[in-house]
Fold these 2 entries.
Entry 1:
Amino acid sequence: MSWILPPSASTFAAQIDFIYYVILVITGIAFVVVEAGLIWFVIKYRARPGRKAYYTHGNITAEIVWTTIPAVTVVMIGLMSGGLWNEIKGRDSVPPDAIPFGVKAEQFEWTFTYRGLDGELGTADDFSLRNQLHIPVNQPVALSITSEDVIHAFFVPAFRVKQDIVPGLGATIWFEATETGDFEIACAELCGLGHYRMRAMVTVHSAEDYQQWVTSQTTVALAE
Amino acid sequence: MRRLIATTVLATLACGGGGGDAGTSDGGGAAAVAPLGSASIAGVINFEGAPPANPTIDMAEEPDCVAKYTDGPIDPIVVVNDGKLANVYVRIVSGLPEGPYPMLSEPAVIDQDGCLYHPRVLGAMVGQSIEIRNSDPMLHNIKAIPTENRGFNISQPREGMTTTRRFRVPEIMIPLECNVHGWMNAYVGVTDHPYFATSGEDGTFAIGGLPAGTYQLEAWHETLGTRTAEVTISDGASETVDFSFSG
Amino acid sequence: MATSAVPLEQAVHSEAHELPFIRKYIFSTDHKIIGIQFLLFSLLFLLLGGMLAGMMRWQLGFPDAPMPVGTILPETMAPDGILLPEFYNSLVTMHGTFMVFFAIMPLLVGVFGNYLIPLKIGAPDMAFPRLNMASFWIAVPAGILMLAGFFVEGGHAAAGWTAYAPLSADPEWTGVSTGQQLWLLSLAILGLSSILGATNYISTIVNLRAPGMTWFRLPLSIWALFITAILVLLAIPILSGAAIMLFFDQTIGTHFFDPTDGGQPLLWQHLFWYFGHPEVYILILPAMGVVSDIIANGSRKPVFGYHSMVYALIAIGFLGWIVWGHHMFQSGMNPTLGTAFMISTMLIAVPSAIKVFNWMGTMWRGNIRLHVPMLHSVAFVAMFVIGGLSGVFMASNTFDIYIHDTYFIVAHIHYVLFGGSLFAIFGAITFWYPKMFGRMMNSLLGKIHFWLTFVFFNLAFFPMHSIGLGGHMRRLYDPSQYQFLQPMQPINKFISISVFLLLASQIFFVINFIMSWFNGRKAPENPWEDNGLEWSTPSPPPHGNWDKSPAVYRGPYEFSSPLVEEDFLPQYRKLETDEEPVAATRET
């Protein structure tokens, strides 16, 4: 693909990408300095007969400089990342108005459980779909994911969302889609011979479409 | 002539496992060991009452499989045609003389086609080759979950792939499943003798090549449970044993 | 300490020449022979690991085509040459296992630890020569068990080289039982070999330094091996313990890692990475050490900031113990820990940067001889920097949400372990080959090998950053299954072809290695005009290394010293102004 990350379709995708670009610039500078320096030294100081190298064992000032600059830089990157990390993954980061979904991961499929029309999970009008997640746009959603067998990882590249799902532990994650459309869900943790086929699709609807869709599905579910 | 009939019946059994259609198909295989006798048992599996509805399968993610169905695919758990029940596995439980029994030299075949197993219920002898085929252009994995035998978990990523496996110990029944398509289930019954059959679409089954004797039979269905029957048969004779299930 | 007396006596009496062939070359207690045994053993696994990688790249580059000559593989691996997903998972697992445990680790620790430590500190042999022999002969059955896994029913271990439970704990999830058990047994046995080796290295460096070889006159290669040996001694038992627990889960029905019976899958990850991150430094510190030696030699200058280099090694060795959680940012462990582990991980950049800048400082105003070992060492620095900088992206727990378990990680680890460790290994083999075998490696073949490897390495691994940033998951049998990955298929193909060419380029090394052994130019005592003690003895050195223990008069990197005409001043050369050193550690 390209150096540019794939299209972003969730609220914190842009923030995560921003961290990427900051690190890219900082490491890019370090990369150019070091690689150019190496090439330059190899050419400029190549062996010539009759010349002796400059005899030195080092320089304290230089050591202090190149210890301090990286230390300050990486700690700053760390602080910048840490704040956003807590917003996304912190234990109490899930917005209270997020729509809850139940997700079951197992070799090699995802089962998504919807709360139906009554607004609650675990009631009679719940319904489940295999490998299909439907969510409304511009509305936080919270996925409580459990695993039936081995470790899987819930990954939506377009949303910059990834979470390992450990059996017996599970995880609750949240995100808010900002674009309507279909996006792929992948399993990102080796989970067996069908790992590469453990894919699903998330469909982001407009708010009205979503309501309509839920209504139709709930009717079907109650009819059965 | 007798021998020919027995051979045909046995060959039919071997293929009948594959076609789920015992009694009608004609196979070309032969038993490696001479049959112990020439008596046979045939019958029909009846289903009383209204059959339960089978769930539909949402196969949308596999358009290549959906294309193999004119109506939407359903999960064929209870298949009843004109009051006759298919996919019932019938075997002789006791009454047989000591072995060895004739070995079924033809492999038992199970095919994955349209993201379903064909047949759904398969009989095989201990040591008999079970040939697993993939007729779908996508990955299926086949996971056998026995309790007595050694399990396996293999994959067939391409159309046309075949894999052969065997079971070493009798076991009723060994579930097979595909984890890529969670709706795909099949069952394999493994016996140490060749006297078993699976009812076809028309509910019929036939077991041949038997010596004279008194036998206990058991009919097994994956959701409807088991039925038993006893039959006494003299050499060269043919007896009818019907079973009856209800929803 | 009784064992330590043996080599000293042997040295004094030169008994070596009377040893029968089997004692001299097979069950040898000579650290040099054991080093060469490890060299051949691990180069074999390096070759195998490379072949496994080639098969994986075939599948990734050309997922629709049967692999050429793949039809020779049995039906359980590749029917009609089409690799099966379960076999692909075994390839993923075994490529990592071979490279980490049976190639790079023994190449650095087993080969150079054994070969260089006594020679560079002026000792006649290791402190415990018989333990040393045991460490090699324990590694051999471990290797055989590991290879045997390919031939058992159910196939080889397929849960990744990290063997995450419960995938690895229960055959139900993979169909693999015996393969995974052999894998665990083999690692537990190999661990014993490593522990014996590490004990020996530490004892030898502490106790057997020649007179005048003070701690701060030790070459950085020895410092690095010393720190590494401490890491090995502390880290490997954790892996062995975890492996035995998992083995019990597999065989006798314990449930350490099985959540359905109260076990905890994350426990495996904590144990594995508590071992695994120090392991990463085990795989890079010795490379840093030998590269420091070679860069000083190639630049004809003392190592810039020798003390900083030593402290940086110690700092990396220490920090390595408190960063393991960064492998588990997305595992579901307490998110607060994520931030703590991120900060400690970020700090590793500091000693790494110190080392890089000091290597550059060493080259600055040097008189650089670009011999083959120097080429590899400069490439080491250049590639290690890329691996180090890409590490900063992953260290950010927030950005790691996106790139965790993608090809970005694969690119990173290969820039560190191939671009880093393996280039250092090629450099070090070329540098010490004349001492090991008494002959020089061919310089032209060496340069051809270097440039081809350098070019194809970058063509193969740099694009992996790019597809990783596109979201390409690792350990994926067939990327074409995902729509968002389909546009990357041309890059995958490009990477695969580069890997094939990279593998083919290694033929030049193999030819050079074998041909030079028999036909190479005879090596003089000190072909590289280096300062280390190993160059004061014939090439190859006799059993016992020296007739009389050498004395050390100065630090290891006195290149271009104004005291002498030449541009090198060996540690063992006595100038008129030098005084006889007092014995540092032992009587001579």
Note: Helices of chain A lie at 13-44, 60-89, 207-223.
Entry 2:
Amino acid sequence: MQRSDHQRPGFSLVFWRELVWLRRRPLLFMLVFVVPLGLMLLLTAIFSAGLATRLPIAVLDLDGSELSRSIIRAVDATPDTAAVLHVAELSEGRHLIVSRKIRGLLMLPHNLERDVFAGRRPEVVFFYNTQTFTVGNLVLRGANSAIPSVAAGIRISLRTAEGQPVEEAKTAVTPIPLQTHALFNSTLNYVHFLLAALLPAVLQTAVVTTMAYAVGLDVETRHRFAVLRRLGGGLWPAMLGKLLPYTILFLSMLGIADAVLFKYLELPLRGQPALLVFAGIVFVLSCQLIGALLALLLRPTAAAISIATLLTAPAFGFMGIGFPRIAMNDFAYGYGELLPGTWYLMARIDQTIRGTPFDLSLKPVFVLTGFVVVLISLTAIRVRIMRRSIPEQAS
Amino acid sequence: MSTFFAVFRSEISRIFSLRPVFSVMVVAAAIYAVFYPQPYLNEALRKVPIAVVDQDRTQTSRELARLVDATPDVAVAQVLPDMPTAQHEVYSRSIFGILLIPRHFERDLLHGRSSPIALYADASYFLMYQRMNGAVTAVSRTLGTNFEIARLVGLGVDPPVAAAATDPMPFVAVPLFNPQGGYATYVLPAAFVLILQQTLLIGVGLLGTMPGAPTPSGGARRSFGDVAYESIATLAGKLLAYLVIQALIVSIYLIGLPYLYGIPRLGSVAIILAFAVPFTLAVGALGLVVAAIFRKPVAVQLVFAAIGLPFFFLAGFAWPAEAMPMVVQWFARLLPSTLAIDGLVNVAQLGASLSDVRSEFLGLWLLAATYAGIAVIVEFRNRRAVWDPAIS
């Protein structure tokens, strides 16, 4: 480290020392570059399709009529479901669902066509599996859109057979048509909903644990802690010089992920980019400070890393993306409130897909800024307490 | 045999004496058992708040709003005068949907014209969207059908005939498993398997990288066969130790916790536990491979901290494997969690028999054998290196 021989103590000395460490310590390098990028790439690959389409379902057609064939065609034609095979009995279909070869089973009863036109109201039954939540709901959506539309066709033809004009019959069968508009994510794309939220969630864990380790390197022994302070020429420059290299690097990782999302995966950016970037900065800083504080409070560093993992690894569930926060119990709601990720995801959803007006976008950004202020103060207090416990050495 | 028992005993005692290992394998497992399920314990999302913008202000429009409010999924939290006000509330997240009932809604209905309504539902949270869409669709269909029947009866059609004409082919959707659509019932069985994998993987990774493992004695040159035998005995001793420790933890996670959290179980305990054996062995052996790759306890801790979340989605449970690229599907099969989540959920929640999940069961044994083979080779090289440093 040539620089340290020539430079005066201060911010830049600590800053550059940290960058040299990053180059010389393969583990630190891996944690800052390889792990976040690798995990984010993996998640992106998993969800790259964005939509799960043509999920396989089976048909048990006991009728074999023109009507039953048209129902099968309709179910096959929805984007959600594909009728891939015929089964001969119910137990066979159930067996295929259990082994997940198929995702649903459509049962068309004996004499379906005859009974429909005789007004006997035969039931069309669709079996599906809600244990796999997303997939179960998707195949249900497919069946739920296909079969009522076939039924509506029958109702129209029943009326036209009575001599009613086609247009009039069409109006009559749906007196209250519902137009549903999916606000903010009209195609219900999982990339924009889930992947866009998972990437920062993974980064949150990576940042908190990595910072616990990086700060741990300096505070593991009293001697090293004193060295850091002397190199920085004071508390604030030392802290800033220690944290800032990671802020820049982790923000770059977030930037790379976002560039892929915006450029290749067509995530819309309907809000203010400046607000999104600012939210990203305070998010990364909050995570860093949590990690740093854990390293300052807990010894040995391995314990700080363990606690950091314990607090952040299960955090995604608490941030209310899959299962909304309004339905959580008080503990889970409160814990979510304390996670930087919860607020960052709110700000992120606001500025990307929602395009929330400026005045309504400020709350999550303010909260994150508040986190940073509180955490910096706590860190400073902790460092002062630690300094008092170290006997002043001659410099 | 003496090597086998010595390694077994030493590994058991190290699990209890090394604090980081004990913290991860026992303490963390205990904390996660309580901590992880918290967000999902209410099971269902109910009463998603929406606003009604009623431009009609008639008895029928109020009846529609009341019916929507009466569904378990949606609650009418506000009645607002116009769309801009309602949109403002959506942006501020106090409501998540807007039901717009246009002017002349009642008049058009009574005149037999089509009388559309509109739902603007927040799709930035899919579960909320799904609830709102489902509830309002059902209400509009039911109310519409009632009007249609009333009209037909008014025209002199017999009520049963009118009912058949409005709904000639009822559609019945039957959820075979998790019939309430509970979120905890969906997510926890899979998440528990993943937590087991994470804690055991990190625990064994730490065991393999921390000092204090019984070191092979140096001294006299040994034959190839002796070293190979010792390596295999060492690995077997270690894996048996993990199996013994995990026996209790795995049983609690796969049988006890689902019971405590009220998650229905259809499968037999015996099959679940039989399935857990190759899973535990595969994860334990993978942990030893991980230890050989990363070499430092802190590296194991840090690299695996954030890996749980991607592994969860890789399992093809929350997001269908059919929708993933082939490369990802193949990579996923290298992880014990992928096969174990498929197999264990099928057995426990869907009541599958062992023959239903034969491919997952055999796949886990194959993974266990492969990783154990790699671990034996690593052990063998380490032992040879003791008396012949040139090899390493």
Note: Chain B touches chain A through 113 residues (CB under 8 Å).
